[in-house]
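Reading a protein record of the kind used here takes only a little practice. Think of the row as the fold of the chain written in a discrete alphabet. With that in mind, consider the following protein and its fold in token form:
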Amino acid sequence: MKGLPVVTIVGRQNVGKSTLFNAILRAQSAITENTAGVTRDVLQKIVERSEFKIPFTLSDTPGLDIENIDEISKEIIDIAFEHLRNSDLILHVIDHKDLRKYDHKLIDLFKKDDILKDKMVLTLINKVDTEQDEYDLEPFYKLGLNELLPISALGRRNFDLLYQKINFFLPDKIKMPEDPYCKIAIIGKPNSGKSSLLNTFLGYKRAVVSDVPGTTRDSVSDQFYFQNQKLEIIDTAGIRRKSKTGESLEFYSYKRTLHSLGEADVVVLLVDAMKGLGEFDKKIFGEIQELGKPMIVAVNKWDLVPEKESNSWKHYKDRMEAKLSILKERPLISLSAKEKVRTHKLLESVVALYEKSQKKLTTRALNDWLSKWGGKNKVQKASNRPPKVYYATQVSQIPFKILFFVNDTKLFPSNILSFYRKSIVAEFGLDGLAVEIELRNRNEGKEGKE
């Protein structure tokens, strides 16, 4: 168990904690009866299942609302709270049909305790067994909870979304102290200047630099410090076309390059300023876009562009955006890796984009925005049958994905989705990120599967 993230289930007695514990484990580990206080110890099991991106330790705590506290009960409560303070994610279970004084007390404790106030708490409204129950959550929203999800532990209702949220709140991998703050992959066509940029960042010649395309045959990486943060930069093998008999893109040293992109937190797509944005660059852009990685497009060799004027970069950007309109929503920068011009600014932009991509928007903030957003009136007026978003929640960071539960997915064509997405980007300061919106009909996937 040592080193694994800890997910702890907590709540008062008889709210369904052990039923939830067993449902996630798919095993009968805890005693489940209607008698309050059946679970008397902190039960722990390692969860390794395909639904979860990393293994974690799942803990089931005893009910904390013990009325007649004796010496043994006090020790049980102390151990349970100590366990909570060492958890990475807390699943707070409340009974939908029975909200009590101790529920309020526990919520208040999560907000005020010096340690617990910094913990991620996902409140699960249990025993929501019907669609009608989901319409009756107003008393819980009034509690000021940031993350709230209606479920049925017994019927596995909304378990797909529960698993998505657990994945969202847990790290992608177990981070070690020696791991870099951010991993950056440099990608582009052969001879676009990737190795020169790597060498500039490192301050010495780490990768071979040549005018011969394809000099870098494998992914080369190294670490360095920037603004007191350890960064790792990866110079990937140049992407090239297949031979004329080929049918698609190929990656030179394909598997290693794909692995590098998969490991990267931010991707820098390097474009040769003298050649401009070609069809092949657009295809590379599409490959990175499909992975959902935060990306900066850097136009290298800007020093070689002749007869530059004060507005030359603006005109150059306009031509690029005319060829690929989505570039209007992505960071663009000109630089010279060889002359070390604006390479520092590129690193600043990379770190800023990475930090932006690590944002976790609370479900409360998203739904507060939805309820007050003036744009929904424009959307509804533009349709004979108005599209409606009932509930929104963020489910991943890379890609930065927000899930909309809606009345009918068919009522959300690309122009309306784009309107929602641009409004979210503006409201939450996500400019530069590829924000995705996934639509789900309100009743889709409510009942869980074994």
